[in-house]
């Protein structure tokens, strides 16, 4: 996770067989504990669906999914 200026806020490394959308909950917990003031998170298309609602309800973050032009 980086801020709007590209500075690193948090990082998480998982095994290759764990999809990012599954690890995001652990990452969100870490961000919440850091009290870093994040409100909106820009994410790629892998974060569509129920994970957006889970993150909003559980942590108060809004996930805005940004797709490549050829995927819209």
UniProtKB/TrEMBL annotation:
Domain annotation Transposase IS4-like: ranges: 2-65
InterPro entries found in the cross-reference section: Transposase_11
Pfam hit, one: DDE_Tnp_1
Species whose genome carries this gene: Elizabethkingia argenteiflava
GO terms under biological process: DNA transposition
Name of this protein: Transposase
Any one GO molecular-function label of the UniProt entry: transposase activity
């Amino acid at each position: 996770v980086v801020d709007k200026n590209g500075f690193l806020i948090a990082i998480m490394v998982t095994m290759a067989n764990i999809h990012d959308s599954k690890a995001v909950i652990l990452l969100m917990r870490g961000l919440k504990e850091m009290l870093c003031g994040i409100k909106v998170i820009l994410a790629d298309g892998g974060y569509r669906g129920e994970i957006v609602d889970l993150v909003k309800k559980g942590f108060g973050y809004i996930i805005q999914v940004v797709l490549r032009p050829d995927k819209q």
